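Listing S7. Sequence submitted for prediction.
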Amino acid sequence: MNKKLFRAIFGTSLTVLLLSIVMIFGVLLKYFTNLQFKELKSETGLAAKAVELNGLDYLNDIDADNIRVTWIASDGSLLFDNEADIAQMENHLERDEIRSALETGFGESSRYSSTLDKKCLYTAERLTDGSIIRLSTTQDAVWMLLLGLAQPLCVTAFTAIVLSLVLSVKLTGKENDLS
C-alpha cells in the first residue's frame, strides 16, 4: 500500500512539475515573440519614414546585422534586400504581411523563411507611393532567452523533485519500504 501511495504522490508531483515547465515556456515564448513583434513594428515605422525621405540611398547605407530589410514594389517585385539577391527571389505579393500592408497600411506574420532556413517574424508598412518596406528577424533571440532560463529552471525542477521525493517518503511513512 505504501508503495502505491508513494508512486501516486511522487507521480502526481512530477506531472504537475512537468506541465508547469511546459506552460511556463509556452507563456514566455508567446510573451517574448509579442515583444519582438512590437519592437520590429516600431523599427519598421522608422525605416518607412527614412525610405520615404531618402529612398534607396538610405537602404544602401544601413547597417542592420540582425534585421532583414526588404523593399517591395506594389506589384510584389523586389526593389531591395539587404541579405539576399533580389534577382533570385520570387514575387512577394502573396505573402500575408505584404497583402495586409497593401490593404490596411500595415501587416505582420510569422513563418519559416526558405531564404534564411529559419523561422522569422515579419512586419511590413505601405509607403505613400504604394511600395512596401518590410523588416524581419529570426526567432533565435527568443530561443536564446529561453535557453538562458533553462539552467535556473533545471535547478528549480531538481529541487522540486527532491522535495517531492522527501514529502512522498514522509507521507507514506516507511523509508525502507520503497524498494
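Caption to Listing S7: primary sequence and predicted C-alpha cells for the chain studied. The radius of gyration is 25 Å. The beta strands are 68-72, 78-81, 106-113, 118-126, 132-138.
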